[in-house]
Amino acid sequence: MKIGNIKFQKYPVFLAPMEDVTDPTFRYMCKQFGVDMMYTEFISAEGLIRNGEKGLRKLDLWKAERPIGIQIYGANIEPMVEAAKMVEQAKPDILDLNYGCPVKKIAGRGAGSGLLREVDKMIEMTSKIIDAVKIPVTAKTRIGWNNEEINIQDVAERLQETGIQALTIHGRTKVQMYKGTADWDTIKSVVDNPKITMPIIGNGDIDSAIVAKQRFEETGVDAIMVGRGSIGKPWLFKEIRHYLDTGEILPSPTVTERVEMAKIHLAKSIEWKQEYGGVMTMRRHFVHYFKGIPNFKDTRLKLLTTVPPKEVYEILDFISDKYGYFRPD
Known about the structure:
Elements: E1 2-3, E2 6-7, E3 13-15, H1 24-32, E4 38-39, E5 43-44, H2 45-49, H3 53-57, E6 68-73, H4 77-89, E7 94-99, H5 104-107, H6 119-132, E8 137-144, H7 152-162, E9 167-173, H8 184-191, E10 200-203, H9 209-219, E11 223-226, H10 236-246, H11 255-289, H12 297-305, H13 309-323
Helix pairs in contact: 1-11, 4-6, 6-7, 9-10, 11-13
């Protein structure tokens, strides 16, 4: 599989763009475990062209992260074109267009998956962005607005005509948000469409190596994208790659191993967002780093309410000392 000049190994596994998750610190962790390509947090086009500090900071890329994509979203064509030009200056390997975010503050304003109800506008936006930049342009979307408006076949065919170089499909509708289960049969129907020649990347509910392999084998997608299943579990990419390459399931990391990973992640997070911001960001990851440990409620509460980094490290040491070589499922 190729996107632009980037050639991927067989069965490539990508990290999805996730707001307040895929910052440089989490991307650093995932890269250590062999993810094939990563994306930044998604960025507001309007915020970016207004020089919003938060948006501009998301354009920071590290050489060791490559290949990496930057994803933007917006409801209006001209700001999206201008933002695309700004993104190009940051020199990502790929520019990705967010046509899939279902949250009300984005889709409700006609951006993200809101464009699934304005396909003509989506196509015009995509065409103008492709004309404005020289880097490869891809897109990410959902299968439709709701169960009565599943229009992914038409969307995929028309996006391909604009010249995008790959399409990621999340197997849910906008209305579903993240509830229920992802519809991989519909993703497969796009892969099987004889009119579709661009790479199709499947996304939704990939939370284990076994599921990852099943999705490749059952749908024929060119790549898979892992989102929420990787939060607080960066080693998932190593487990998936090992199983895809060998057919063997790696044992789950011990608690001690998880603590060491969490410490590295915490240190990177503090370095990036200062002490308070770094600790706050890590809380959503801590929940998953130590999920499955028995009789952990009190310790979890302390971990998720403590702010001074020194005390957080002390709690992590306590967890390692108490649970040691236990392997949570």
